[in-house]
Structure to design on (400 residues):
């Protein structure tokens, strides 16, 4: 059973391969590099769910294989839920993790501790060549620090302290991060559903 | 009758002096440079109203004179209403108009035309030495262009096309801008109230 992982984000590929392998070791996970290459379109959706589904559908169309995609990001209370769907291009160009993180810290420099709540949200979708698709969500709440801590993970992980934890998402072990993370939650919901429909 | 204008923003001083002069020419408007200097604190409020009132109260405390202040900003639909109260420090440091504007353009690069709605919102407040105060609001709706146009105004004016207008806020004459602008609306509400309480 072969499934395409429709993401070009190296950090996500590592996490999603790990999460899929834990859930369904008999599924062969192909990265975009393993399949006939295509140029993913821009992400123009207003919601995580719309973007995740669009990415999965695009991969199915390009490869003819079942596809899994996610769209996820940081939702900052003091930014009215942004960067949200713009998390990857918050600093104005796509994929500069460090610039995005530094920008959020700068924007929140005068925001007091009691208003530094945030969440990581993930929408995960599968799509099949026969047209079926599904989207699920995962979320982890936490607070934003004033300086980065830790070298693991990617994106905004170094400034995100998950609720009830003493370590940032970038300080947690991959196993501990997957256990609580938004993407871990979403993929643990999605993968059994995908396996069910693929087997049916 | 002397009133302190509690803003260090040069663009705002020009606009607010002009708007106050049009409304109440017998009021002597003092800038922060004209009064005993004080260091305005950081703006930490979650709303325009809270910040405007805090600035006015701070000026009254420092000078013993009636004070007028505003807090205003750009609310972008596709950014869930942000930059909002963070408009002046959107790019991470305070007061870099060009960087702030370029950042919004970059963040919205993939946002289609039909989701580029925005508003300029102004909360204007007065505060008196006897403790009385009031806050009013003005708003102008419009859409965001993909490149700046015009050299007038300040802040995000060059990318803001007010509803029903063919010119950006930076292309309008000062007179035309004042007539429709968020700050013009708010000060036309506020100044008669302030004059009434000062005369009572």
């Amino acid at each position: 059973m072969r499934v395409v992982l429709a993401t070009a984000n190296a950090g996500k590929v590592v996490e999603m391969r790990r999460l899929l392998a834990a859930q369904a070791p008999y599924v062969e996970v192909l990265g975009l590099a393993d399949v006939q290459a295509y140029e993913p379109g821009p992400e123009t959706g207003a919601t995580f769910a719309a973007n995740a589904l669009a990415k999965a559908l695009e991969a199915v169309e390009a490869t003819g294989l079942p596809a899994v995609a996610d769209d996820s990001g940081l939702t900052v209370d003091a930014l009215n839920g942004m960067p949200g769907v713009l998390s990857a291009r918050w600093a104005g160009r796509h994929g500069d993790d460090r610039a995005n993180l530094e920008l959020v810290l700068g924007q929140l420099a005068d925001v007091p501790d009691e208003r530094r709540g945030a969440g990581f949200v993930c929408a995960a979708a599968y799509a099949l060549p026969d047209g079926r698709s599904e989207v699920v969500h995962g979320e982890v709440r936490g607070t934003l620090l004033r300086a980065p801590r830790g070298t693991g993970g990617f994106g905004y992980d170094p400034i995100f302290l998950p609720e009830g934890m003493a370590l940032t998402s970038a300080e947690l072990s991959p196993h501990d991060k997957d256990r609580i993370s938004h993407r871990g939650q979403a993929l643990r919901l999605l993968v059994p559903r995908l396996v069910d429909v693929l087997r049916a």
The mean pLDDT of chain B is 92. The first strand of chain B starts at residue 2 and ends at 5. Chain B has one domain: 2-199.
